[in-house]
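Friendly challenge for the regulars: who can give me the structure tokens for this chain first? No prize, just bragging rights.
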Amino acid sequence: MYSAVIVEDEPWSLASLQSVFPWESYNFKLPEGFNNARDALKFISNNKTDVLFTDIKMPKISGLELIQRVREYDSSIKIIVISGYADFSFAQKAISYNVFRYLLKPVTRQDAENLIMKLKTELDAENRALNIEKTYTDITNPTFREILKFLNQYYSEKLQLNLLAERFHINKSYLSQLFSEYLGCGFNEYITELKMQKAAEMLERNISGTEIANFLNYDYVYFNKLFKKRFEMTTAQYRQKMEENK
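First reply, four minutes later:
Bragging rights claimed.
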């Protein structure tokens, strides 16, 4: 699950921010809350943090100072500035630190859900890229590396484990074992996940569900069943969420 930290010196506002986001629905742990930047900075420096939510105007160490210090050693953390001030100079300075989003209080439930969905989409994409890179690095079996490259190129075809084993002159049972050993899943699980991620990317490019199902060699009804199981929403709902977050 993803982790988040909220920094807000006003107790009522901190409580509101902790409750307004549907954390668990989007694979986030309940966030850590701090009423000052110093304690938050100490926590972030010692704990993996995916997202930082911070107010701007706080005593002693301001939100902008906190962002600057965090950026000195962590360029990947997503930073959300939440402020009661519609001040362009604050926003401009925040942008210079590669802030993910600048939100004005009060944050509505709709704003919160739109934002957390976008955060999850970004974090999922980054993790997929890291996992693929790590996977190829960690795989010592050259034949299996070639098989994964083949699958990532021809994922839309009707793929079967036995035919794949024949193509690469490898025992079927041994190939199945390699998927479990290196990827922690079976062949069918890997292919389905690969296809679902590609389907999500195609939906974001406004390609219709029917076209995507045909491209991926799925029956349309079965494709929709798989997609809903993976993303916990229909293709129409997914597309709508993407439109709302643009």
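Residues 27 and 101 are 19 Å apart (CA to CA). The chain is about 60% helix and 10% strand. Your move, everyone else.
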